[in-house]
Amino acid sequence: MTLLQTHPRPAHTNAGRWTATDAMDAAALQVWDDMTVEVALSVMSAARTNHLVVCDEDGRYTGLVTRTRLTAVRNGSAYTDRVRLRDIAAVDGPVSGRSS
User: Fold this and answer.
1) Is the pLDDT of residue 90 over 70?
2) What is the pLDDT of residue 28?
3) How many Å apart are CA 37 and CA 13, to the nearest integer?
4) What ranges make up the beta strands (E) of 1-92?
5) Is 37 exposed, middle or buried (CB count within 10 Å of its CB: 0-12, 13-18, 19+)?
6) What is the sign of the dihedral through the CA atoms of 67, 36, 4 and 58?
7) Using CA atoms, how far apart are residues 95 and 39, in angstroms rounded to an integer?
8) What is the pLDDT of residues 37-57, one digit of tens each?
9) Given this model, what pLDDT does residue 21 score?
10) Residue 88 vs residues 10, 50, 71, 78: alpha-carbon distances, Å
11) Is 48 left (phi over 0), alpha (psi -120 to 50) or beta?
12) How distant, in Å, are the alpha carbons of 27, 61, 69, 98 from that of 76?
């Protein structure tokens, strides 16, 4: 089962852009990297959000995926229903830095 963690949204952002720290500390939804693209799109739809913070099995931030990126992956010729968030190499979204 893929788990979700919810957190309150930030009261303000840095001119509409989040840093990696902002995303980790105040994101609406954090999901595990073993979630499939299809499930992630369903979660985004239900939560009415356009991005998800992705964490590894240790709970460490690994990236941010957007609805636009996931839709592009799903519409790609190589897509199968087994593609997981960890399989998507690019980090997207309003992130201006990455934390390790």
Assistant:
1) no
2) 54
3) 27
4) 4-6, 29-32, 51-55, 61-66
5) buried
6) negative
7) 23
8) 999 999 999 999 999 999 988
9) 57
10) 26, 16, 12, 12
11) left
12) 28, 26, 11, 27
What's this model's pTM, rounded to 2 decimal places?
Answer: 0.65
Residue 32, token pair as written in the block: 């595990």
Do the beta carbons of residue 41 and residue 73 sit within 8 Å?
no
Q: Where are the alpha helices (DSSP H) in the chain?
A: 20-26, 37-47, 67-75
Q: What's the angle, vertex CA 69, arms to CA 43 and CA 75, rounded to 5?
A: 90
Distance CA 44, CA 17 (A): 19
* Structure tokens that stand for 48 in this block: 């009415």
**pLDDT, tens only, 8-29:** 444 444 455 555 555 555 545 8
Q: What is the CA radius of gyration of the chain?
A: 13
